Amino acid sequence: MKLSSFLESKFICTDFEANSNIDSIKKIVDKLALKEEKVAKLKANIREALEKREIELTTAIGSGVLIPHARVENFDDVIVAIAIVKTPYDVKTAVLQEDKIKIIFTIIAGQTKNKIMLKIMAAISKLIQIEGKIDEICSKKDSDEIIKIIKSSEVEVSERVTAEDIMNENVEPAQLNDSLENMAKRFISEKITGFPVVDEKGKFVGEITERELIEYGMPKYTSLFNDLSFLTIGEPFEKYLKDEKKVHVKELYRKNPLTVDRKTSIMEVCFLMVTQGNTRIYVVEDGKYYGMIVRGDIIKKVIHI
Known about the structure:
alpha/beta; Mannitol-specific EII, Chain A; CBS-domain; 2 domains; four-stranded mixed β-sheet; 12 helices; 24% strand
């Protein structure tokens, strides 16, 4: 089913004016309530659910796009609304980057419809990735024209939830020649416990995690003991501090971490995480790295969508 199949002209607003995400949600719900009786009946609940989700973690995903979404009790439908912002307003995205919101896709669904909501969000993400498509949509004043553009994009809302629907594509891989000092800075600033590693040709070769940096800083003999309380001398991580600029990822990275392809089902991803104890899975096809999945992605994007 195409993404355009979920769109109706009456749920598309051009020349929309707002100055914040919460202001946008309030005004969008007000407009939808005037157009749709189901929304009018549950207006307060819908607004509360959308605002709560936005406050928990912003749905600004970059490229000028906001996707407020919520599952609402006693709502037995799925509505996708679009608002073209007349004067884009400033926000910070979920990864704390500066952005200006110029288009808002709002998704309202029933309490048990998390699968279809996730698939619609994934389809919108694919639409955003088509070069120039969002700007083309934002340039139109006619609702039917907007639907026609989205229909021509051929973006599908598929039936299965797969790895590519929940993976994080924004994690920049580490390079084999990156220093430990550089990686330590990235672990701190990006709040990630492990990074994919690619070679000079961009081919996925493994991962580098916090563990490798910590292990490097410990004397080799300590691995032979169960208790190090008897140690009272020596500078902690003396070797690491001496070598952090000279030692590179290629000397420490882990080869053959757990990988899946983009079409691996979400249930298989969860099974691998639970049964093998992995906190990270990398999405790789034909040696090309596409993204990574951590346990938090499952909770945030599937369980607590």
